[in-house]
Amino acid sequence: MIAALAPFHFERPLWLLALIPAAALWLLTHRSADMLVKWRRVIDPALLPHLVDGETRPAIVSPANALALAWLLVTIAVAGPAWQREPSPFAQAKPPVTIVLKVTPSMLTQDLAPTRLDRARQKLADILAAREGAAASLIAYSGSSHLVLPPTADSAVVLDLAKSLSPEIMPLEGDDLAGALALARRVLAGMDDAGSVLIMADTATPQAAPGHSGGGSAVTILSLLAPGSEAGGLPEIAKALDATLIETTVDQADVTEIVRRLDRADQLGSVAGEGQHWREAGYWLTPLIALLALLWFRRGWVLP
């Protein structure tokens, strides 16, 4: 038992300073309620025991004592007593991902039925379903890059907006992959946890190659081309970014590999709490505090 309590401490020890005014108030109230103290001011101490009849000291169960005890228990509870550790509720949280989706006329090619863009949406739905609860943001790019949705854990919203994207609504034609990646890094930089970038594109031009590598964020590229097709420019982009290039498959093999990389263990090191945190036990005092509070509903407790 003693060994188990060895790590005992308070998470918020400064709250214990609230016991100082509580002690001062109790002493003041206790002294003012002692009738012997009052009579000593007017009666000779040698005669006082013979002249005062009956119980003159305040009762043990009194409003002042009950208030002092309640104050003590509340202060201890708020200070956060703890001596055991437990897994953090955030320890299993999956790192966020920024989806970079190419939205150009080439994505309407039907070599991946119904179209490359539709297949990208289907794969995106499977990826988000496998990472339920993880934050995801969406960026669309063609000749310019645009943040469609900031990080959110609502996968349904991400999919709805992805379904609304088409080449017709993009302001410029082209291949601004470098701008999309820069925007993705800015989105991830605004989050507390480490995250990844998932590029969903069919091809990339040499001019789209970023001027530097991934900038600290892991990058995965899903090639939206029919199996056996030339992945125009994507291998070069992957090499420049030190990224992983994954070919689209007719089954879930590509989704499984992407999810594995997005959830890789080395990204969990930045999650708050580092896997465990102290379990506070102050809430166990709540029933005692509630019972003491019931005394103030008793008739004649404070005023006779």
UniProtKB/TrEMBL annotation:
Residue ranges of domain VWFA in the record: 98-202
Highest rank taxon of the organism: Bacteria
Pfam families: VWA_2
Protein name: VWA domain-containing protein
Originating organism: Bosea rubneri
